[in-house]
């Protein structure tokens, strides 16, 4: 990290999260840690390749942090007060928009003070970008937390090319219409030149909404606004640095780590693996229940099989996340108290985040991967598993409600709400012939190595800059 940053840049990313999070320990010492979630995993390699600047929040309330240079690009931290963290981040972003955009799996909460804070903070991000962008620069706004930034930024700097990418799903109009501020949010996004979504369905949902705005016509992926602009609306399924993950997972160090982890788990014949943020969209309740029942019914033998589940703590002060954490702890305890033994735990559950090398080792050793969200924009974990696991005798069980299901068609598909169906599919994935599994893995590998994060970024930026 160095303190020298450029005055103005031609390429800017704005996201609520920065790639690194500032942590202040009890003794006052400061450290930086990798930030959680798929947005950072996807964008880090793009920024390392392209350079420019990343504007975002550094994860600590009430702290002003100076800009710095990191990994080949500049970082401009945007400060948030403790009250803004509560109202803009935990409130409007993660208790209003997050559940609303994920099909109202839990009830979205609407508060007028949260909406006020959301507008105020979005203006601050836009002002920071307007400050840093060179004449005619390309600015790429990321995700639902910054839904209003395209409009604000266009008002401040009409010379810029503005792209927006939504990393999460976009709901059907029937659900979206509950939002008291639906008009303002649609108008916020229409400030962009290009709006990208994970799937064609999400893009179609937005286009339908845009058409309802007075003076806007929208059809075939283009919206025409009353001020005479054309906004392109399209899907750009996001991906990962597949080769980077593969190289890491097949390095000698990580292979040795995988062997050690297998040893630590008691050398089971089969390892089933799951890794997610601890989020109610990830289908953890259903997944753990399904595997627990397979153990209880004797279909899985705890002397032979271990289910390892990691769950990174996430948004811990938001009510629904607290409820989820308690529910999962209880569920895991109930299962482990009935199956396995002191020496052989059937279910190994860790509520923690692990370094990238350890994660790669876990993917490398996992015979069966469970990715069962009840709704997910894409789900990068599914792609990471395919990139990391080099053994053909492997299987991916994937929810049909993840964006990734449109691309990884050879996965063992499940409806996570159908516990019996999920149990049957897990057993099939474990018992199918090595030939069938190898064919599936090879086909998914082709997909993941062809459609990498570089392809995603280049497709988006070519479309944006070509307009
Ligand atoms: P989301 O963005 O909703 O969290 P994704 O599956 O798209 O879901 O991305 C999650 C990212 O976070 C992946 O890159 C994954 O490797 C990482 N991740 C999730 N859980 C952990 C964990 N316990 N430790 C380390 N990395 C994790
Ligand atoms: C998802 C969202 C990202 C978010 C990430 C982690 O990937 O799409 O915008 O950064 O989850 O969540 P957090 O609230 O910790 O930033």
TrEMBL record:
Any one GO BP annotation for this protein: trehalose biosynthetic process
Q: Which InterPro entries match?
A: Glyco_trans_20
An example Pfam family from this entry, by short name, is: Glyco_transf_20
Enumerate the Gene3D superfamilies for this protein. Answer: Glycogen Phosphorylase B
Domain of life, per UniProt, equals Bacteria
Enumerate the CDD domains for this protein.
GT20_TPS (cd03788)
**Coiled-coil portions:** none
GO terms for MF: alpha,alpha-trehalose-phosphate synthase (UDP-forming) activity
Similarity comment text for this entry: Belongs to the glycosyltransferase 20 family.
Q: What is this protein called?
A: Trehalose-6-phosphate synthase
Source organism of the structure: Cutibacterium acnes (Propionibacterium acnes)
Source taxonomy lineage?
Answer: Bacteria, Bacillati, Actinomycetota, Actinomycetes, Propionibacteriales
């Amino acid at each position: 990290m160095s303190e020298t940053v450029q005055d103005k840049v031609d390429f800017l990313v704005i996201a609520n999260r920065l790639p690194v999070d500032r942590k202040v320990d009890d003794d006052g010492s400061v450290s930086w840690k990798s930030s959680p979630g798929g947005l950072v995993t996807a964008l880090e390699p793009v920024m390392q390749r392209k350079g420019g600047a990343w504007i975002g929040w550094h994860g600590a309330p009430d702290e002003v942090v100076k800009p710095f240079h990191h990994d080949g690009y500049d970082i401009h931290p945007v400060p948030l007060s403790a009250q803004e963290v509560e109202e803009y981040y935990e409130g409007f972003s993660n208790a209003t928009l997050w559940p609303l955009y994920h099909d109202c799996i839990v009830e979205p909460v609407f508060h007028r003070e949260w909406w006020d804070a959301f507008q105020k903070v979005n203006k601050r991000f836009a002002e920071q970008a307007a400050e840093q962008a060179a004449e005619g620069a390309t600015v790429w706004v990321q995700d639902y937390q910054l839904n209003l930034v395209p409009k604000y930024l266009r008002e401040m700097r009409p010379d810029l090319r503005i792209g927006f990418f939504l990393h999460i799903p976009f709901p059907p109009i029937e659900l979206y219409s509950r939002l008291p501020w639906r008009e303002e949010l649609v108008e916020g996004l229409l400030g962009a030149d290009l709006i990208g979504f994970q799937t064609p369905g999400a893009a179609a949902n937005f286009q339908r909404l845009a058409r309802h705005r007075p003076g806007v016509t929208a059809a075939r992926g283009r919206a025409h606004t009353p001020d005479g602009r054309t906004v392109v609306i399209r899907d750009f399924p996001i991906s990962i640095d597949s080769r980077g993950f593969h190289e890491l997972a097949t390095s000698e160090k990580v292979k040795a780590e995988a062997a050690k982890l297998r040893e630590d788990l008691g050398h089971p014949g089969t390892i089933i693996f799951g890794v997610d943020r601890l989020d109610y969209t990830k289908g953890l309740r259903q997944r753990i229940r399904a595997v627990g029942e397979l153990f209880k019914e004797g279909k899985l033998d705890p002397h032979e099989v271990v289910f390892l589940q990691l769950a990174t703590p996430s948004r811990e002060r938001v009510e629904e996340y607290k409820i989820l954490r308690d529910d999962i702890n209880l569920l895991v305890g109930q299962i482990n108290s009935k199956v396995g033994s002191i020496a052989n735990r059937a279910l190994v559950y860790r509520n923690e985040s692990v370094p990238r090398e350890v994660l790669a080792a876990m993917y490398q050793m996992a015979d069966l991967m469970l990715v069962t969200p009840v709704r997910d924009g894409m789900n990068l974990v599914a792609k990471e598993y395919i990139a990391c696991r080099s053994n053909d005798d492997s299987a991916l069980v994937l929810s049909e409600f993840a964006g990734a299901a449109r691309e990884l068609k050879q996965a063992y598909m499940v409806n996570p709400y159908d516990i019996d169906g999920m149990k049957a599919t897990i057993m099939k994935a474990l018992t199918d012939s090595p030939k069938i599994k190898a064919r599936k893995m090879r086909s998914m590998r082709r997909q993941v190595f062809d459609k990498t994060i570089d392809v995603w970024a280049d497709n988006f930026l070519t479309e944006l800059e070509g307009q």
